Amino acid sequence: MALSASYPPGMTRIDPKGDVVFEVGTNDLRAQLLVSSKVLGLASPVFMAMFKRGFQEGENLFSGSLHPVHLPDDDPETVTILCNILHLRHRQIPRVVTLETLTKMAVICDKYDCKDAVTSWSIIWLQSWADCTGIDELERLLFITYGLDIPDMFTRISRSLVTLHAGSLGHSPTSAAIDILPEDIFGDIEHHRESIYSDLQRAIENGISPMVKGHDTDRQCVRSIVGLYFQNLLKVGLWPLSDSLRKYSVSDIITKISDLEELEDDSTRCSPDCLCMRREYIKPRLQEALEDIFRDIEGFCLDCAKTEGFSSEEQSCRIPHPVENWRVLAQRF
């Protein structure tokens, strides 16, 4: 289709034969992009509808006039990257982007429903942030992986939020992120973490149970070992459990248990069948129990989060998992 308007100066010709001009942003932060309505429509049902008759943008397109399409609320840099991706201009696409840009990309892809078109690039960008452990970064990444629909990393990030941090969550996301994420998702992560704390507390309490439930519990040597156990917990900041445990992340608790001193009482000399002679097995068995708990911790399922659990019941989740392990969490969404 011939266009009646000349190209304005400063325009980025993403498609030199394009039929639509985007004016993105406002004032000094503005970009003009010459793009193809056909390419945009193939990637985004929102753009496809926009350029049909009945909308001003569509009427302008069919009239042959190169009238700008104003996108004042969108970020110029992010829309430029998106359009370069959709038009296969790979040399113009950055290989590494900031968390801020990723956040804006997630918002844009949600707005225009074109996340599938940027999946490959999303995976490339997220690789740079795969080892992030800071709470602010993880909370942002949870939103980013949700908005860009990257299920494996969403599961990994939500697991990291469960295991690597204590205290309340949900302080970092932007207002746009809050609008897109499921309501109270951070509360659900905290609820999941609380169940892990309960499992850890039971394991630590049960760690000394052979000494307090056996037939020799009235012996001084056994009472001494029991006292040493709780004294050692106090030294690493984990006693009393009900007050101390939740001050630390799940990962930190595992580390603190590995730092426990051995249960030695040199003043005690007992027969081989005395309970106190089993003290050397207490710490290794406790570590094994806690490591089992840690290994079994699962992150959240992105598909369950987006479908309120229906994908789990239909066994259509992209990251397979047992239905019973997710039902309660999914229903909370």
Describe the 3D structure.
The chain is α/β, with parallel strands linked by helices. The chain is built from 18 helices and 4 strands. The chain has helices at residues 37-43, 45-50, 56-63, 76-86, 99-112, 119-127, 135-147, 151-164, 175-180, 185-206, 209-212, 220-235, 241-244, 250-258, 282-295, 302-307, 310-313, 323-332; strands at residues 12-13, 20-26, 29-35, 68-71. A 4-stranded mixed sheet has the order 1-3-2-4. The chain is elongated. The protein starts with 11 loop residues before the first strand and ends with a helix. The relative contact order is 0.08. The model has no long low-confidence stretch (mean pLDDT 86).
